[in-house]
Specification:
By secondary structure, the chain is mainly β. Helix content is 13%, strand content 47%. Strands 1, 2, 3, 4, 6, 10, 11 and 12 form an 8-stranded antiparallel sheet that branches. The protein has a 5-stranded antiparallel sheet with strand order 5-7-8-9-13, with helices on one face.
Length: 179
């Protein structure tokens, strides 16, 4: 009786692994493919922080642009009255996000503070063809968790600061143009 040797089994497994890596099913989509089919964003680590005694607050979030993989930090600041009401806020104001690292990605957000409707807009070019510029927009309603125990309340010199988490979400983008 003849038993296969460990070396032959390892060689067979190695060849199977190489074939799987070379198959089109396992290849990662390119930036251009993702840009044209799913120009989406993944929002994470979002929170709202209110400082009524300090006269303001902010919504902070990270937006990872899926086609380019670039992470951007977005902050929307607003003014508050001493009794905790948002005042003098323009829901059509546009706020620029800051990229982590060098990138052609330019992302802006608008946030309606009454409905928590967030609208993202990005323009970008892919490394494999920098002559094509993509533009996409997408919207989602942020879900702020204000349930008992979810928010962190911290004392400060100007009164309590309340920070509440906002759920992670993927925002579906619609390709507006590719020039």
């Amino acid at each position: 009786m003849h038993h296969p040797r460990a070396g032959r089994v390892a060689l067979c497994l190695s060849l199977v692994g190489q074939a799987a890596l070379a198959s089109p099913v396992s290849q990662q989509a390119t930036c251009a493919d993702l840009s044209a089919t799913t120009p989406n964003w993944q929002l994470s680590n979002a929170a709202s922080s209110d400082w009524p005694g300090g006269g303001g607050g902010r919504v902070e979030l990270f937006a990872r642009h899926i086609p380019t993989g670039v992470m951007a930090a977005c902050d929307v600041e607003y003014s508050m009255s001493a009794d905790g009401q948002i005042i003098d806020y323009d829901p059509t104001s546009t706020h620029e996000c800051m990229n982590f690292g060098a990138s052609s990605l330019n992302t802006t957000v608008q946030l309606n503070m009454e409905t928590l409707l967030l609208t993202l807009r990005s323009t970008w070019a892919c490394e494999e063809d920098a002559t094509v510029t993509y533009t996409a927009t997408g919207s989602t309603n942020l879900k702020r968790d204000t349930s008992p125990g979810a928010c962190l309340v911290e004392p400060s010199q100007v009164g309590d600061s309340t920070t509440c988490p906002i759920a992670d979400v993927e925002v579906e983008g619609e390709l507006a143009e590719a020039l």
